[in-house]
Amino acid sequence: MSHSTIQDVYPLTQEQVAFYDENRFIKLKNVLNPDEVRIFGSIISKEVEKLNQQSKPLEERDTYGKAFLQLFNLWRHNETIKELVLSKRLASIAAGLMGCEKVRIYHDQALFKEAGGGITPWHADQYYWPIDTDKTITAWIPLQETPLEMGPLEFSAKSHQLLFGRDLEIGDESEARLKQKLRINNFEHVIEPFELGDVSFHSGWVFHRAGANKTNQTRKVMTVIFMDAEAKLKQPENQNQINDWNTWCPGAKVGEVINSPLNPVVNHINP
């Protein structure tokens, strides 16, 4: 790879950190260079193709199934993807925005919204996570330019303050109930196209959704979820959190730091 940015720290400004702290999401320019996006995009696409087991046609799937193909922990399957997921670049941003000294990986996931794929309903990610801190953040990395008609993320700014809906799993009910509640509370909804190299970061409790993919191309996105390196496992509050514990934090103990082999600390500080 020509000059690689992924092992360089990203220079966050105080304004960017303050914006994230207030709104719990931010879209950043030039996080990756276009060559990197293309190279990682090609490798991630091949891995998704290899691992994808979705055999139902779009029209036979439920709302969740129509939203995207979802494949997890690709960093465990491919060394180049591991380089991206465990990069100093992403970790430095995650730590800087959350105000953590160090972060660790919760898991990664590829989210490929097929041509004609449906909406991703309103939800908060952390409903699924048995993590005892709100210092959690997802890097959302589009692997192509993503215009509005392709279904980029839509954020409800400052909605991490809303306790309603934190017990809703993603689906038709979360879309209907949260749409109404977010409107009543007058949270600003922000949706913007992504250029090549743009990456957004959002916290575990901020509500967000994505529109349908109205283009004839797949909307390819890689995501990496980070948490404070000191985050502890909490007593799970729903079946999804029990599943996540067993799948993404195997062997972790309630009340102790989540320190499984699947959750490495990413060192973004020069030794």
Automatic annotation (TrEMBL):
Keywords: Dioxygenase, Oxidoreductase. GO terms for molecular function: 2-oxoglutarate-dependent dioxygenase activity; iron ion binding. InterPro entries: Phytyl_CoA_dOase-like (IPR008775). Pfam families: PhyH (PF05721). Gene3D superfamilies: q2cbj1_9rhob like domain. Coiled coil: none annotated. Its cofactor is Fe(2+). The keyword NAD does not apply. SUPFAM superfamilies: Clavaminate synthase-like (SSF51197). This is Ectoine hydroxylase-related dioxygenase (Phytanoyl-CoA dioxygenase family). The lineage of its organism: Bacteria, Pseudomonadati, Bacteroidota, Cytophagia, Cytophagales.
